[in-house]
Design a protein that fits this description.
The chain is an alpha+beta fold. It has helices spanning 22-34, 64-90, and strands spanning 2-8, 12-18, 38-44, 52-59.
């Protein structure tokens, strides 16, 4: 995954990401939208033939870069819980 900052100021962060699955970004977006400090969070794919996505975050307060990192951390924790539940339900071992 490659991430580039397209725009950044005190309340706005716009990122361009490549080599990433849309579903991962949707999970992060959902975590951002649950945060009371976030006013707006969206992701889009500028062109259907490119594997590049843009994510835009506007905050009511707080550093958007820090808030984005925090949302990524929460998404990672949820994926770990999901993995554990799948292992329990299917009786498989972690590889």
């Amino acid at each position: 995954m490659q991430i580039a900052i397209v725009k950044e100021d005190q309340t706005h962060l716009e990122l361009e990401m490549s080599d990433v699955d849309q579903s991962v970004l949707q999970i992060i977006q959902q975590e951002l939208l649950k945060d009371d400090k976030v006013e707006f969070a969206a992701m889009n794919r500028p062109h259907p033939l490119l594997k590049t996505y843009k994510m835009s975050i506007i905050t009511k307060e707080g550093n958007p870069r820090v808030i984005f990192k925090s949302a990524c951390g929460r998404a990672l924790e949820k994926s770990k819980v999901l993995e554990e539940e799948v292992i329990k339900a299917l009786g498989t071992k972690k590889e």
